[in-house]
Amino acid sequence: MESTLKEMREGASVLDMDPKSTVGGGVEDVYGEDRATEDVLVTPWTISVASGYTLLRDPHHNKGLAFTEKERDAHYLRGLLPPATISQQLQEKKLMNTIRQYQLPLQKYTAMMELEERNERLFYKLLIDHVEELLPVVYTPTVGEACQKYGSIFKRPQGLYISLKEKGKVLDVLKNWPQKSIQVIVVTDGERILGLGDLGCQGMGIPVGKLSLYTALGGVRPSACLPVTIDVGTNNEQLLKDEFYIGLRQKRATGQEYSELLHEFMTAVKQNYGEKVLIQFEDFANHNAFDLLAKYGTTHLVFNDDIQGTAAVVLAGLISALKLLGGSLADHTFLFLGAGEAGTGIAELIALEMSRRSKTPLEETRKKIWLTDSKGLIVSSRKESLQHFKKPWAHEHEPVKGLLEVVKAIKPTVLIGTSGVGKTFTKEVIEAMATINEKPLILALSNPTSQSECTAEEAYTWTKGKAIFASGSPFDPVEYEGKVFVPGQSNNAYIFPGLGLGLVISGAIRVHDDMLLAAAEALAGQIKEEYLAKGLIYPPLSNIRNISVQIAANVAAKAYELGLATRLPRPENLVKHAESCMYSPAYRHYR
């Protein structure tokens, strides 16, 4: 996709930069948490206090009943806690029992957010130890409902809100954030939240959720993460009329007013935090997503998870699936339903991987990939009316409308849904895929679950158990004619935490396509025969921190190879170095 972005930048590459621009961006470890083991004492205080009451209300250092007798004396906690002392493990058991009693996912989400606000380490301990159970709670699909109802459930701000009211003062707003050593920022303008559309300021649930995964799955310190929502208004009439809506009550700003606020934000971030802070664009509308990535890709360390993260995780699944399908990527024909940022981003990375493996020009490998949008198959006769990011996919073919007709005409071996519209992989479409292919590969990637192009049960049933299936949101195992099929989840959480860790530990100053390929290959390398036997093309999420370490090491190695790393000298063993840099949620012992 770098080639597409280079066209938008008039030939500029992420490798074209002024060497002087690599200065700055170092991150201070205020409490010594990176260097401290669980047995090394750390000091939770930066000021003198007369009572431990403040400590109990500091989520970064509160341990609740796990404070030892010695700590209760040293930090003025006597009488502020019941006399019992319990372990973090017992606290974890108690809270998991409580969370499991809730019937509604949103209740579980609220309970987890409240835990994060009072005891940060215990929150991450639960999320790390029960990742398969709690990932759907703190992120997709539940986070979608949380964003829709964010105004009603809002209790305490969890990130920075930068609105048009702050135009001209964005740097001052950044300085209001209490943590000064930021390594990763996730920013959204709320215009395209999952498959739910424009949720305006209430999109803050997405950056908050993403950054919790950067910490839990990728080991980036919570204090180094900053969620940001850029509020330029919303075109969602329902929200504008909602008395509990927390954002600007105006139509969404566009054009110069929008661009100036975003540019001020990007400039202020670099000025305040330096060159090496990772800025992840999240859930921007297509027209802004590509423009922002093209505009800032050569001047900032930027990454768009919807375009690049989705592409890397899908590519990893395809590489794994080749062990079941046979052949190489170039032997297959790919059809996308949806030609937005996710669809075109995935398509470009697949074409790039095919090009590099087969030594074939990118223009040729693109011809193996077909995209459809709301107007039908994207073909050359439509080129003049297409948005710029769709034009590389306009191939020679007669116009075809309707997905079923397109499947019959193109005869794809792989069907990928990125439309954001549920139930679009109909029974007729899936049956056509099964007629054309012995093992049709079907990826229904749209989130949340309600927007998935089809369910796992539909894919397996309609293909009579022939399908290899993965989805964006989780589905339960399916039994068909006595055989149990375990659907894989093509979850971006496999990629972005490890990618972010790799960028941080190498001190990378730009994101290059080769790093995305390195991340995808590292993920595909984690798939084992026992997983493939169940039809899984992704490894279990229960092993995600180890997977993130491998991805981080691969990404860091590529950063050093490309000359984009600034943390020198290069560590001899990048895997061990990545492990040593990961945040641990275990309680610290206080002096």
UniProtKB/TrEMBL annotation:
Signal peptide: none annotated. One of its GO terms (biological process) is malate metabolic process. Residues 116-297 form the Malic enzyme N-terminal domain. The keyword Disulfide bond does not apply. PROSITE patterns: MALIC_ENZYMES. Gene3D superfamilies: Malic enzyme, N-terminal domain, NAD(P)-binding Rossmann-like Domain. A divalent metal cation binds at E282, D283, D306. GO terms for cellular component: chloroplast. Keywords: Metal-binding, NADP, Oxidoreductase. It catalyses: (S)-malate + NADP(+) = pyruvate + CO2 + NADPH; oxaloacetate + H(+) = pyruvate + CO2. GO terms for molecular function: malate dehydrogenase (decarboxylating) (NADP+) activity; metal ion binding; NAD binding. (S)-malate binds at R192, N447, N491. Its cofactor is Mn(2+); Mg(2+). Residues 307-560 form the Malic enzyme NAD-binding domain. The active site is at Y139 (proton donor), K210 (proton acceptor). Divalent metal cations. Prefers magnesium or manganese. Pfam families: malic, Malic_M. The keyword Oxidoreductase applies. Belongs to the malic enzymes family. This is Malic enzyme.
